[in-house]
Automatic annotation (TrEMBL):
Superkingdom of origin organism: Bacteria
Protein name stated in the entry: TPM domain-containing protein
InterPro entries: DUF5130
Organism: Nocardioides albidus
One Pfam family of this chain: DUF5130
Length: 119
């Protein structure tokens, strides 16, 4: 999880939130917050491809400066988590992001992802 825009306490809270969501949905969840190099979707996909088990992983990439959020799912994870559900998660996060609450938006999005993608 690369989240240098967050405090140590916020990163620790997000880590717990991610682990809880992973238990619900049986997928690995990763978060990247930072500058996307080039096209955001391509950047997010390249990050996702470097994960240990990309087929069982879901990556959330947030570029706060460009106001971009991308969610990339591997094949196995996609069986439980649709593009429409990913759009719901992005919508929930961006409402909080627009209010200046990066950590709260990530937390809400990850919790919703876990619920939507569970078995």
């Amino acid at each position: 999880m690369s989240t240098t825009a967050l405090s140590a306490t916020q990163r620790a809270t997000l880590d717990v939130t991610m682990r809880n969501a992973e238990q619900l949905c049986r997928a690995e969840i990763s978060v990247f917050v930072g500058a996307a190099t080039g096209a955001p979707r391509d950047f997010a996909t390249s990050l996702h491809n470097t994960l240990v088990l990309p087929s069982r992983s879901i990556l959330i990439m947030v570029d706060p400066d460009r106001r971009v959020v991308e969610i990339v799912t591997g094949g196995h994870a996609r069986e439980r988590f649709t593009d429409e559900e990913a759009q719901q998660v992005v919508a929930a996060m961006t409402v909080r992001f627009a209010a200046g609450d990066l950590a709260g938006g990530l937390t809400e999005g990850i919790e919703l992802l876990g619920q939507l993608a569970k078995d």
